[in-house]
Every structure is written in structure tokens, then in C-alpha cells.
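Quick one:
INPUT:
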């Protein structure tokens, strides 16, 4: 690296050529920002979701909510919309009304057989009583009690739908019809942002054309939430990028305001590193996922850190009277080993994320490590080349910067103080550690994801019986497997092993059970109701009896008799029926721990061969995310710690030096975790991503301080701290500069990264400015004492 300045033009041209070649890959990047996109390609959940989309179409709906004080206008608009939407090639089908008429017509086939027997018994009893009352020799001695006897009037059929289809059937309006709901099922993959946008815009165009009465229309559903997520995260990513660039410029201006010529060259390696990393993201993976979105914040921050270290040393060498080329060579030789070790430590900590079998995190770890290495390479090649080319005719004039003293230069610590202070701080740290340093994990996905937070829209839906919980969907290779699955579920239910499953609906079990027996029972009941007997019933009895007479011509139902709305729910693109089943949970699937139990129970329902059925759905995705991260976090942390220790030993070749460097980072993390535990801050899959950055950040700062101390052993620790402390402080802030903007993010998970980063930065800087001077002064005392003892021996 020290001789790269000899070929500045070649390096600059090569960098520009690579940047030019990266334009096409970057422009073709796909933005896949859903949780399911972070699962590995081998994930059965992801495979099932893709297969389901191929078989059925979009997994989810675009839901329209219409509100008008005039229910008739509402109804007319609904029918106009449905008529036009059905013509849309992007729409599979539309559901906007219940199938109440069908179930009323066939209510005696859907009623339980036991209830039908009870009806028969009551009619026979009522018939016997009427006959006895007509007998002049019969006297009713218990007339008062007889009034308490139940009649057929007490047999209710209103709960038939609730018993059999309450979870599958949606209620699409409120009681007075002033609120109507339309479910639109797309034909395309809704996890694709572009596909969801096409569906949404095509439907919105129809609504705008047909809504001539200015009825209020609200949008919700999974299609809308995919669009909303993309609409939120993509602009926010751009905004965070601008904020990061602005803050980096401000930091460079503060640090080099006496040498402003150095600021503009610094922008080139920062821009090139992130641009190249995005290009490599396309070449390796073809996409940016929800986690790799953070690269736009991590890479520029680390690049700024590397550049600040190099330019600070370069400015110092120039003030010694060296030429630009010699100053750069001396700077790279002086801080090169430390910045290289720091960069490889950062890359290794990010790469440790690849040990977690979640693709989204693996991509972040690998691309993050590549980006960090690119930062190091460009800071030591492209930046020096630009500086040399700009100063070929005339070197920059470097003004003497104003000194900033973080610590009073007159401050001195007497002999016992450093050791006592260190002992006190170590004891305090141990006490904090014993009180608990393991933070709790946030299982509530409503606190980490941008789920449906439309309070007004939700309030409208709450006025209807629209379902609250998303079902899990089971996919079968053959429709006949639905009966096998349902029988296996009933067996589990019988053994009380389905505590989290509320109900299971397959196409097969939508048909009434025991139809032949029920029809025979209806015939028996009908035989009891001769015209002579009917004349004895009072009007209230006659109403209920009439329901049975109307069901006299009922015939056995088959699958083709089911309503179109129901058939559409189970219909594949090829027209086959019954390849899906719906499993409804007993509670909200926002609770991650419930999702894990729910998924475990579902996967315990096995095929005759002993395999799990293919399933997918939001609950399964969330369970998979947790199962692919939580059990592997400790492996990632241990691997990162081993790598850090190895690299510091490689750099210093002394265990004691490595201990000096790693003490402050270790203590700072105990403080961070203790504070998180004390404040009851729960970690999420997002906020945990701040820790690799914080680990690398703390080690880098400690390395820079101790390197100067080891290099200039005759300089006091306080002088070193005053001399390079400001640049270390700024470089530490620069590394996390991208995460500051996350505090303004509307995405809860991303915002949590910003909170942990700010908290971590505070304790890292505090530990550096406490431990380095105390440990260095203690080491000075030790050396002086050893030197004094050695001199006395010679005397």
C-alpha cells in the first residue's frame, strides 16, 4: 500500500472504470423489503409461499372499505366496483358479501345430528301433549309446570354459520350497511413491490372513475401494506442517505476546517465504496433486503472513520515539512497496521452474522464485510492518489489547527490514584454485571414491524365482523390429502395437543357431515307433521315448524353446490379445488413466542409418511425468523470475540498489549448491557445488529489510542489523549453517523437500531476517556518503578 502513490493516474482511472461498470448492476437491484424475503431459499415456508402463489395467485388481499351515510349509495357503488374489478386481469376474484342465503336454505344439513334428534324428540313430545289435550278424559294436574317445558321454539339455528364457518366467512358490512368491505384477491405475487403497485393503481383508477357520489374509500390489506412499507422505507433510505452525507460533511468540516482542501477528495472513496458494495449486492444476490438496507448507513460511516485517521496523520506529517507523497507514505506506514487490523476486525464482526442461517443477515454480514474491506483499500489507494494528483503543481497550504484540550494539561495524578480508581471502576463493573447483563428479547412484532397501525381504518373494520387474525395456509399436492390432514388434526385435538389452534377449515369439511342420516331424520320429522297435527300448533310453534316443512325437499350437497365465494377461496389457477386448508390461531400472531408454539403444533400434524405438511403464513414466517436467529446469536458473538482476540494478537504479538487494547471495549459492553437491562430496553432482531458495529467501533478507538502510546512511549497519556482524542471522538461519531438518522425512521425496528447505537456510543467514548489515561499512567508508574529498581541494582 505504501507505494500506491506512485501510480495515482492508473488507480484513479481504474476506480472510475469499476464505478462505470457498476452502474448497470446497481440500477437492476431488486428491493425485497418483506420479512419473508429474508428467509433462506431452502426454507420450506418460503418454498410453500412461492408454490402457493404459483397455484393460487397473490397470497393476501387488497381490501377496500367504503363508508357512506346512505347505505343505498354504498350498495350501488359496491356493485359497480365489483362489476369493473372482475374484468381486471390482475384480479383473481372479489368477495364482497356473505353466503347467508345458501346456509339458510341448507341449515338443517349443517345443524348437528344431535340437534336434529332433539328437534324430533321435542316435536313428538309436543304432538303427544296436543293429542292428550284433545282427550276429554285427560286432566293436566301439572299445568303450571308444563308451561316451563321447552318447545321447539327454543331450538335455535342462528349459530350454524358460527359453528362451522365463523373463521372462514367474513362479514362484509355493518348492521345498517353504511360500511362495506371488499376483498380483492390478486393473481400476482404480492410480496413483489412492483406487482402490488400495479394491482393497487389499477384498482384505484377504477374507484376514482366509479365513485361519482364522493363516497369515502379507505385502503388496507396485505397488498396495501406491502406498498406502504416500500413507500415508507425507500424514501426514508434516501432521506437517511442525505442526512448521513450531510453529517459526514459537517464532521469533516469541523475536523479539517483549517485544511478544507482535504474535504473534497474524501468524498470520492466514501461514494465509491458504497456504490461498489451495492453493485456487488446485485452480482452476488440480485437484491437489497430489509437488513442489507442498512449498508447505506454502515459503509459511509466506516469509510469516514478510515479517512479521518489517515488525513489526520497526513496533516501532521505535512507540518513536519514532508512532501505530499512522503507524507502519505509515512502516514500509511504509521497507522496502516492499526487501521488494517481495525478494518479486518469490523469485517470479521459483521461476517460473524453469516453464522446465523437467516439469509437476510448472512447477506448483510458478507456484503458489510466486503464494504469495510473496500473502505480500507480505497482509503489507502484512491484517496492518496487523488491527493497527489491535486497537488502535483502546488501542494495544499496547511494552516496550523487550533488545539483542543479534552483534559487540562496541568492535571496530574499522584502515584496511588490510577490504580485505586481502576480497582474501584472494575469493582463497580463487576457489581453491575452481577445484577444482570442479559437483556430481554422483544417478541411483540407490532413493536418491531410497521404493521397495520391505521387506527381509523381499524375502527371501521371493528364495526363489522371482519377477521382479526391472519390464517396459516396448508398446501396439498393432491386435494384428497386435505381429508388426511383434517383427520390427523382431529386426532391431535382429541388428545388435547392443539392448544394454539382455534379451527381448521378444508374444502372437504365445508360440506355438511352425515348428510344421509340427517335427510332420513328430516323425513321422520316430516312424517310426524300430518295436516291433522299441524292444526293444533299455536302461531309461535307454527313458525318453527314451517322451517322444517320448507326443508322437506332438501337434497344431499356436493362440492359443486358450494357458493362461488367459497369455491374461489379453494380454487387453483388450473380450476382444481381443495389444494389448500386454513388454520386459524387462538390469539394475535403479533406475539412471536405464540407464533413459535403455534408453528410447532401445526408441524406436529404429520402425513402418513411422518412428514410435516407444507405451510406458510405470517405466523410461520415470524416463527422462522426467531428460530433462525435466537439459537445462533451466542455462536455469532463467540466467533466475533475469538476473531478480535486473534487479530489483536496478530497485530501486537503480545498478550499484554492485546489486554490493554481490549479492556475498555470489554468494560464498555458490560456497561451498555447493564444499562439496557436497567432501563428495561428489549432487544429486537434489528437493534441486535448495532452490536457488531459497536464492537468494532470500540476496538478501533482503543487501538488508535494505544498505538500512539506504544509508538511514542515517552509521551504522557494525557498528552496523547489531548493530541488524538478529538480525532478519535469524531471518527467514532462518524462510524455511527448513519444510525443517528434512524431515530427519525417511522419503522420501529430500524428506529431501535438508532437508540442502541446512541447509547452504545456514549459508553464507548466514556470508557476510552477513563480507561486509557488511567491504565497508561499506571503503566508509566510501573515502568518508572521498574527502571528505578534496575538502576539501584546497578549502583
Amino acid at each position: 500500500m505504501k507505494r500506491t502513490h506512485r501510480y495515482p493516474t492508473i488507480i484513479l482511472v481504474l476506480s472510475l472504470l469499476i464505478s462505470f461498470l457498476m452502474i448497470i448492476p446497481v440500477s437492476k437491484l431488486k428491493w425485497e423489503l418483506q420479512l419473508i424475503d429474508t428467509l433462506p431459499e431452502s426454507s420450506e415456508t418460503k418454498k410453500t409461499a412461492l408454490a402457493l402463489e404459483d397455484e393460487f395467485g397473490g397470497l393476501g388481499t387488497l381490501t377496500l372499505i367504503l363508508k357512506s351515510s346512505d347505505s343505498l349509495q354504498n350498495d350501488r357503488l359496491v356493485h359497480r366496483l365489483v362489476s369493473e374489478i372482475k374484468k381486471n386481469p390482475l384480479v383473481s376474484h372479489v368477495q364482497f358479501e356473505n353466503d347467508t342465503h345458501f346456509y339458510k336454505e341448507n341449515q338443517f344439513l349443517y345443524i348437528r345430528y344431535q340437534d336434529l334428534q332433539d328437534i324430533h324428540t321435542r316435536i313428538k313430545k309436543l304432538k303427544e301433549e296436543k293429542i292428550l289435550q284433545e282427550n276429554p278424559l285427560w286432566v293436566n294436574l301439572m299445568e303450571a309446570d308444563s308451561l316451563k317445558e321447552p318447545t321447539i321454539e327454543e331450538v335455535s339455528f342462528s349459530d350454524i354459520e358460527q359453528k362451522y364457518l365463523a373463521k372462514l366467512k367474513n362479514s362484509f358490512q355493518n348492521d345498517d350497511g353504511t360500511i362495506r368491505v371488499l376483498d380483492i384477491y390478486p393473481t400476482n405475487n404480492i410480496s413483489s413491490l412492483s406487482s402490488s403497485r400495479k394491482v393497487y393503481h389499477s384498482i384505484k383508477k377504477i374507484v376514482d372513475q366509479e365513485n361519482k357520489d364522493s363516497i369515502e374509500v379507505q385502503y388496507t390489506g396485505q397488498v396495501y401494506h406491502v406498498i406502504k412499507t416500500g413507500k415508507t422505507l425507500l424514501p426514508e433510505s434516501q432521506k437517511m442517505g442525505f442526512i448521513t452525507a450531510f453529517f459526514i460533511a459537517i464532521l469533516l468540516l469541523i475536523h479539517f476546517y483549517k485544511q478544507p482542501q482535504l474535504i473534497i477528495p474524501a468524498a470520492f472513496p466514501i461514494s465509491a465504496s458504497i456504490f461498489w458494495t451495492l453493485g456487488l449486492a446485485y452480482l452476488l444476490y440480485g437484491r437489497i433486503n430489509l437488513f442489507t438496507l442498512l449498508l447505506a448507513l454502515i459503509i459511509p460511516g466506516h469509510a469516514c472513520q478510515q479517512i479521518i485517521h489517515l488525513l489526520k496523520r497526513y496533516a501532521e506529517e505535512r507540518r513536519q515539512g514532508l512532501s505530499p507523497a512522503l507524507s502519505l507514505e509515512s502516514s500509511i506506514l504509521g497507522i496502516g497496521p492499526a487501521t488494517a487490523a481495525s478494518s479486518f476486525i469490523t469485517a470479521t464482526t459483521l461476517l460473524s452474522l453469516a453464522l446465523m442461517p437467516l439469509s437476510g443477515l448472512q447477506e448483510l454480514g458478507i456484503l458489510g464485510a466486503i464494504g469495510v474491506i473496500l473502505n480500507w483499500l480505497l482509503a489507502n489507494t484512491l484517496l492518496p492518489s487523488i491527493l497527489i494528483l491535486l497537488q502535483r503543481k502546488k501542494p495544499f497550504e496547511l494552516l496550523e489547527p487550533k488545539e483542543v484540550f479534552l483534559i487540562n494539561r496541568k492535571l496530574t495524578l499522584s502515584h496511588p490514584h490510577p490504580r485505586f480508581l481502576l480497582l474501584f471502576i472494575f469493582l463497580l463493573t463487576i457489581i453491575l454485571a452481577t445484577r444482570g447483563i442479559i437483556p430481554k428479547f422483544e417478541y411483540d412484532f407490532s413493536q418491531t414491524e410497521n404493521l397495520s397501525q391505521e387506527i381509523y381504518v381499524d375502527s371501521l373494520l371493528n364495526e363489522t365482523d371482519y377477521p382479526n387474525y391472519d390464517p396459516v395456509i396448508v398446501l396439498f399436492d393432491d386435494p384428497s390429502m386435505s381429508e388426511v390432514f383434517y383427520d390427523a388434526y382431529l386426532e391431535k385435538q382429541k388428545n388435547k395437543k392443539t392448544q394454539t389452534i382455534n379451527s381448521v377449515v378444508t374444502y372437504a369439511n365445508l360440506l355438511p357431515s352425515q348428510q344421509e342420516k340427517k335427510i332420513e331424520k328430516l323425513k321422520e320429522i316430516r312424517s310426524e307433521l300430518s295436516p291433522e297435527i299441524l292444526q293444533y300448533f299455536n302461531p309461535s310453534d307454527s313458525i318453527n315448524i314451517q322451517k322444517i316443512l320448507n326443508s322437506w325437499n332438501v337434497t344431499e350437497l356436493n362440492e359443486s353446490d358450494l357458493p362461488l365465494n367459497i369455491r374461489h377461496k379453494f380454487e387453483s389457477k388450473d380450476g382444481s379445488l381443495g389444494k389448500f386448508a386454513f388454520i386459524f390461531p387462538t390469539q394475535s400472531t403479533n406475539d412471536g413466542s405464540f407464533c413459535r408454539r403455534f408453528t410447532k403444533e401445526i408441524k406436529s400434524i404429520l402425513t402418513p409418511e411422518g412428514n410435516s405438511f407444507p405451510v406458510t403464513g405470517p405466523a410461520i414466517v415470524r416463527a422462522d425468523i426467531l428460530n433462525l436467529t435466537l439459537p445462533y446469536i451466542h455462536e455469532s458473538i463467540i466467533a466475533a470475540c475469538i476473531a478480535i482476540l486473534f487479530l489483536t494478537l496478530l497485530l501486537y504479538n503480545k498478550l499484554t498489549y492485546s489486554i490493554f487494547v481490549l479492556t475498555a471495549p470489554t468494560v464498555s459492553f458490560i456497561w451498555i448491557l447493564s444499562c439496557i437491562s436497567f432501563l428495561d430496553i428489549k432487544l429486537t432482531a434489528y437493534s441486535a445488529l448495532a452490536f457488531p458495529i459497536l464492537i468494532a467501533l470500540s476496538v478501533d478507538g482503543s487501538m488508535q489510542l494505544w498505538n500512539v502510546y506504544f509508538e511514542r512511549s515517552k509521551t504522557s497519556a494525557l498528552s496523547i489523549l489531548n493530541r488524538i482524542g478529538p480525532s478519535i471522538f469524531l471518527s467514532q461519531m462518524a462510524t455511527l453517523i448513519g444510525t443517528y438518522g434512524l431515530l427519525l425512521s417511522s419503522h420501529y425496528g430500524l428506529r431501535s437500531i438508532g437508540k442502541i447505537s446512541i447509547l452504545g456510543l456514549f459508553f464507548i467514548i466514556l470508557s476510552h476517556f477513563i480507561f486509557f489515561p488511567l491504565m497508561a499512567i499506571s503503566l508509566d508508574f510501573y515502568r518508572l518503578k521498574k527502571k528505578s529498581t534496575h538502576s539501584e541494582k546497578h549502583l
